[in-house]
Amino acid sequence: MKYMSTIVQPVSQQESAEKKSSTLNKPQTGLIIGGLIAAAVLFVFLLITQDIVQPILLVIGLLLGYTLFHARFGFTSAFRRLASVGNGQSLRAHMLMLAVAVTLFAPILALSFSFFGGTPQGYVSPVGVSLLVGAFMFGIGMQLGGGCASGTLYAVGGGRSVMFITLLFFVVGSTIGAAHFNFWMEDMPSAEPFSLATSTGLGYSGAWLVSLGIFAAVAAITIIIEKKRRPPKMAAVPSEKGWRRIFRGSWPLFAAAVILAVLNALTLATRDAPWGVTSAFTLWGSKAAYAMGFDVESWSYWAGDLATLHGSIFADSTTILNFGVILGAFLASAAGGLFSFTKIKAGNAAASVIGGLLMGYGARLAFGCNIGAYFGGIASFSAHGYIWGVMALAGTFLALFLRPLFGLSVPKPKDTFC
């Protein structure tokens, strides 16, 4: 698995040939030029037809995709490697990312700081059956689909062919989840949203300190697990030296964690909401369903927001972020000489269909994905973000038994991670 798995999966016989191509190749100049032209055209189009926020978000999305690809920053792989062999390197990078994020989110939310005069709101969602079921489904789905929400986007940008299947069924699953939204929200038990900052009396400063303590505890637990299980470490991925490393080769995982947190904070201050991914998938799928004659307007998911449903996708800020991530990953892969469409095997395709459906449906139930619920939720001091992470990890444990059924590898203690 050439892109998502370059540094986060064990090398199996199936992947050995792909490992060879992880060495630095010559930049794919034609693709780079084409990608820059596409980004420039989209930027100008947004500048002319949309609010100024949209072209700014496109640039942020480009930087997100570029960072994700260069660091091969994985959420799916981090959970899988911890669950399978006890390697917590990537999860510790998550904790650093979250620590930086809450440090930046706290003053933005407390002071209602916005670049364009709005009122930033974090992702604070209810805790109930839908969250538990949805996050668990998402955990299974991302291990079968080969990537999480952000991972699917940047793998598509990198040319990993099977991820186009995952993305398609991610959209389908999200749309079905929107159609069933009323059942999960109205008929299933749920508690009120709970914020460490506003529901406890701690305020944002107190919630910030508590959050840092939780992150430190999680990081310490991963170290304890590693000392007990002695898992393999992640091997270095080839990279340029000096300033050229900005454009080619791998980036340090922890550097990417900081950059992603900063970009998420910039997103919050720009569009008054954190980074998200899957609401755009629901919009795309709902528009397609409406065009096919489905009574989408009656779905409770779209109640009070029909303007978004019938408006241009270019007016949707999450859609623009997603386009930016794909383009940013494309530019990063071309700069490293790595862009190419990969062969799709039947087992991988079947797993991608099921994984995409589970992720899409699960994301709607759980108020988001690894970005909106886990990253954005925890950064917003919401309890639902922590619960999402626990349930997605539980789903990962189950998925370890399902992956071999589709010919997908499972990390083992003696494997070498690359």
UniProtKB/TrEMBL annotation:
Compartments reported by the entry: Cell inner membrane
Q: Where is the composition biased (Polar residues)?
A: 1-15
Name recorded for this polypeptide: Uncharacterized protein
Q: Name one Pfam family in it.
A: Sulf_transp
From what organism does this protein derive? Sinobaca qinghaiensis
Q: Give the span(s) annotated as Disordered.
A: 1-22
Q: Keyword Transmembrane on this protein?
A: yes
Provide the alphabetized UniProt keywords. Cell inner membrane, Cell membrane, Membrane, Transmembrane, Transmembrane helix, Transport
Write out the transmembrane intervals: 29-49, 55-75, 96-117, 162-185, 205-225, 246-266, 320-341, 353-374, 386-406
Bilayer topology reads:
Multi-pass membrane protein
